[in-house]
Amino acid sequence: MQKLQIGFLFVFLVGCSSGQNFPPTVTHDIVQTPGLLPTQTAIPPTQTLTATSTLIPTLSPTAIADGGGRIAFVSERDGVPEIYVANSDGSNLTKLANEITPKYYPAWSPDGKKIAFGSNNNNSAALYIMNADGSNPAKLIDTKDIDVYDQATPDWRFVTGCCNPVWAPDGRKIAFSIVHYVGCCMLYSNIYIINTDGSNLISIADHPTEDFGPVWSPDSQRIAFGGNCHEHGSICVMNADGTDLLDLTHNKGGGGPVWSPDGKKILFATGWGGNAQVNVMNADGTDLVSLTRSGSPWDSNPIWSPDGKRIAFTSHRDGNFEIYGMNADGTGLVNLTNNPADDGSQAWSPDSKKIAFVSGSDSKAEIYIMDADGSNPVRLTNNDARDYSPVWSP
Q1: pTM score above 0.85
Q2: Closest alpha carbon to 120 in 19, 30, 26
Q3: Tell me, what's the pLDDT at 155?
């Protein structure tokens, strides 16, 4: 059976690492209309869990799920990655066609009216915004417009899984990552913030470093990320203008931070002790608790449910990638997918009742939806190409 390629935002484990969304097996190159402002730079107790139950779903061949909302995802069914949108029951499948191809990493705006995405073509790369129906694509940033710290003729690229655009909850800004190459070799990665009209580009570091996975606080005032804040591998937090950069885990590593819906805590994964595990701490770095300790090399990619009550994450503790769920305090651990194929790229529905994910159970990457307890898994897509990166509309 074909194995899905599942990567995780772990600089400390896999160097560049790859992302949360079953990314395509290409290395993207990034892509602003003229008029960017000059780049501004910023100053630079545990518990052990035992699974309480295991659900063993049978994956249905066709999507029959209920529930509101739409799901955007990337599909290669046309021979080139394109963004599609469908209702959560699989109906009204629509390709968001326009002149920009390929398209990667769809991200809904908070009001659901626009989608940000990445594209690459002819050794260049771009960050775009388009209407939710695919019309009026607008380029926000071209990597050639960003300084490269005196390096000659750089090859600017998105790196697979590392550059998903992330909207601020107030809809005014987008955070994203760029990995900077010279020739074949990675120089460093950096996180940038840009207004949704393409103005006021901000870089959070004034030196080559390795920063990935920016996420916004619920109030749009702060950004957390995994990287080398103050030259150390840590979970870092800063203000949205690039100031007040703080190291929360103090050179202990970590990746994939996620704010709790109330903004009081940060969930993240790390490889402490030789195993990747899911951790939670207060937003100021205090009261750090390890929620999982399975001995697995991959407990990773944790995400909060929108109501803040549950956490879904990916684990390799069973010999293949599965999606697990648990309560926010680490209790009630359940294998949600429990099938021989690799599963991952989980995404909660806005009402916290369902989870979209990617599964290789049909010997190819297809998108499924299941109830939050792992029951009633149904297939949203069914074609011979790969489908990946599911994201729910608000």
Answers
A1: no
A2: 30
A3: 52
